[in-house]
Amino acid sequence: MTMKKIVFLTGAGISAESGITTFRDAGGLWEQYPVEDVASIEGYWRNPKLVIQFYNDRRRQLAGVKPNKAHELVAELQDNYDVTVVTQNVDDLHERAGSNKIIHLHGELMKATSSDEPNDNRCVVKLPNYESDINFGDKAKDGSQLRPFIVWFGEPVPMIELAAERVSEADIVVIVGTSLNVYPAAGLVRYARRDATIYLVDPSPQNVPNDMDIHVISKKASEGMIDVVNAIRNSSLL
Ligand code: APR
Q1: How far apart are CA 116 and CA 110, in angstroms?
Q2: Given a cut of 90, is residue 214 above it in pLDDT?
Q3: Which distant-in-sequence residues (6+ apart) come within 8 Å of 125 by Cβ?
Q4: Whose CA is nearest to atom 28 of ligand 1?
Q5: Would you say the pTM of this structure is higher than 0.90?
Q6: Distance between CA 87 and CA 223 in Å, rounded?
């Protein structure tokens, strides 16, 4: 009996209760920093030192936060289901909660890469700890400036095809904590099979496709995930 497949599509909202600010809520990151300056490829080439420091600050924040109940419930489902986490988040909270199949669509704070060939795997390196700042002058393996392994606006999303394939194979898709504003990530739910069950957990859901049968749970991630786990377990008993 093969395990049922569940794909989670998570965004900043799943890390909100861990104390990491989201992007577009009131007081969000894009209210504090102009996104084009710190999260676009043009911004990086305009002022690499500013961008490198912005991600050093965000990486250091990880030392003071930990996974919340939502991350933990996602990881626990691995005991009885084939779970893949497709996240837009660059934090390591899904890893720390114990999830072991994670696709980071927008990169990872705990990795660095080449400025010339950011997606050349030979140049991608793991940073040992949260205090491992990238400094201007640090070199990647190809001799270019070492940069954060982050997918910025204006750059391709190399993992999107793999993520779409996983969604197309899923029996259950669970969207948690994303405003569904940013493509191509926001389009992934469209790859769900017609017979897949889809849940969405968000205290203020937005951009929810109205032509799809999506079970919307208007709660915070840690509470909403309890409802999702109960619904999945009950449906498995049918
Ligand atoms: N639990 C669940 N969801 C929450 C919570 C919470 N406690 N708090 C806020 N949210 C929801 C908000 O209602 C919103 O729908 O999380 C979502 C956060 O949306 P965004 O801030 O837009 O974050 P996200 O969708 O992940 O942004 C996508 O944009 O800037 C880029 O690369 C960046 O990966 C990011 C992408």
Answers
A1: 19
A2: yes
A3: 111, 112, 113, 140, 141, 146
A4: 182
A5: yes
A6: 19
Ligand 1 center to 203 CA (angstroms): 11
Active site (annotated) includes residue 106 = yes
| Strand ranges (E), 23-137 | 82-87, 102-104, 107-114, 125-126
Q: What is the pLDDT of residues 85-109, one digit of tens each?
A: 999 999 999 999 999 999 999 999 9
Of 71, 94, 104, 106, which one is the catalytic site residue? Answer: 106
**Is the separation of the CB atoms in 111 and 149 below 8 Å?**
yes
- Alpha-carbon torsion (190, 14, 118, 35), positive or negative: positive
pLDDT band (50, 70, 90) for residue 125: very high
Within 6 A (CB) of ligand 1 lie 11-13, 16-17, 22-25, 28, 39, 88, 106, 177-179, 181-182, 202-204, 206, 220-221
Q: Output the CA 80–ligand 1 centroid distance in Å.
A: 28
29 CA distance to ligand 1 middle (Å):
10
| Rounded distance between C-alpha atoms, residue 89 and residue 69, angstroms | 17
